[in-house]
Amino acid sequence: MRRKNCACTKDDFFPEESWKSWGNYAKGLSETPKRLIERALTRSSDEVELEAKARSHHEMKRTLTWWDFIWFGMGAVIGAGIFVLTGLEAKEEAGPAVVLSYVVSGLSALLSVFCYSEFAVEIPVVGGSFAYLRVELGEFVAFIAAGNILLEYVIGGAAVARSWTSYFATLLNFRSDKFLLTAHGLADGYNQLDPIAVGVCFIICIIAVSSTKGSSRLNYIASIIHIVVILFIIVCGLIKSDTKNYTPFAPFGARGVFKASAVLFFAYVGFDAVSTLAEETKDPGRDIPIGLVGSMVITTTIYCLLAITLCLMQPYENIDANAPFSVAFKAVGWDWAQYVVAAGALKGMTSVLLVGAVGQARYLTHIARTHMMPPWFSYVDEKTGTPVNATTVMMGATAVIAFFTKLEILSNLLSISTLFIFSLVALSLLVRRYYVSGVTTNANRNKLIICILLILGSSIGTAAYWGLSEKGWIAYCVTLPVWFLATAGICIFIPRARSPKLWGVPLVPWLPSASIAINIFLLGSIDKDSFIRFAIWTAFLLAYYFRKS
């Protein structure tokens, strides 16, 4: 029996029948192959995902509007990416053309935002991409995708927490590594301990579990201050600009622009966390599209203006890779401005951590509702209306990684999972619009499968050829027309099986198909180590999934 809200029982962690006795466990093992096939091919439904909310014991409070979503959206993405990676990519990969890199990454993110918005409106639950993929592509694909996005949030949060410490040291006029403690007995890369990052994660966790609306209000304050500082950087930076610094514009060519785009996509990671707040929205059909699309347009504009300002202030080869904006102001004689920049960066990273904590906990909550993770994680506190257990565990994992792991190692592990999941969400939208079991004929289903395979194959071919051939162009004459014809085939030959009830993505199938192509193309520009990490983590998820099955 559960005596108190905080009490736990065995069923909270192992609710399946196979855990009831040793006999049941042995029987479950013998049936694993059959059950695995059934679960891997099973698709959920909108109704099942909505009904899963009852497993959290209490409803989340509907308090958010489109205004909250816009500020949550900006708070989720405007942080470490723009202040840490812009200088590095401008100096080593793109030059002043880094602004084009932000445009490409922003376009990819905006297309994904449209896809996420329709799903969030139609299926307003906290599960985010896990719920959407579970409905359209099945439980197996959804679990692998959700596992990767959770890892991405933990690693991203740890990277931001480490950056927070560095900028805090800069604000106090110390070296960026002033507050790191060296543990000589640990391996290199894991021996620079960061207790301040742990403290920041602890404080963010307390705020996130206290109240979603309270988190939103704090995010308002932090984001407003952050926007004021960004405007200061843009206006004052342009005052000290020199157009000669924009020559040459693209010293590393188009390849450098796209390579930087893949890395700078980290600067846009986070908006998908905002879609997990759909369950707490007053009017999902209005608030979600306005909030998500509006925040992404504003964010992309800000990023481009900051990139232009930085490269006009200094020649790209002189830009500092670690603190580009602070050093740029110092280079033009405004030493005092570095403190304003550091304060703005801290505010931005605080918002990223807060929104990330709110979003990642809701992902885990919905996964636990489906019993793909222990149901204990799905508990929603009656008083606060927040998923206390999931928030605490996810922020605890973030704090542990942030405490030990060097920022450079963390930054190498980002982006690939997010691009992979964004591609799957766009693919899911095509399936949602053109396939409904019992409605779509077998002939139309087969046509859809062929067209989707051609879209995926041509996109992968384009990305692979881009990565392998620096000057070739012949393969593009094949892959690009195949992508166009496959998308046109869906548009012309396959009737739509479903229309959105409240709000829908425009230009279907072209918009989601373009999202798939751009995301996969950016994947082709990511380094080998990221793919190795992706493979190792996915193998771990497969092992866990087989064990659960």
TrEMBL record:
Q: Which family does it belong to?
A: Belongs to the amino acid-polyamine-organocation (APC) superfamily. Cationic amino acid transporter (CAT) (TC 2.A.3.3) family.
Which superkingdom? Eukaryota
Alphabetically sorted, this entry's keywords are: Amino-acid transport, Membrane, Transmembrane, Transmembrane helix, Transport
Transmembrane segments annotated in the record for this chain: 64-85, 97-119, 140-161, 195-211, 218-240, 260-278, 290-316, 336-364, 385-404, 416-436, 448-467, 473-495, 502-524, 530-546
> Where in the cell does this protein reside?
Membrane
What the entry lists under InterPro entries is as follows:
AA/rel_permease1, CAT_C
Question: Per the UniProt entry, what species is this protein from, by scientific name?
Answer: Capsicum baccatum
GO molecular function ontology, one term from the record: L-lysine transmembrane transporter activity
Domain named Cationic amino acid transporter C-terminal: residues:
503-546
Indicate what this protein is called per its UniProt record. Answer: Cationic amino acid transporter 1
How does the entry describe its membrane topology?
Answer: Multi-pass membrane protein
- Give the CC-aspect GO terms: plasma membrane
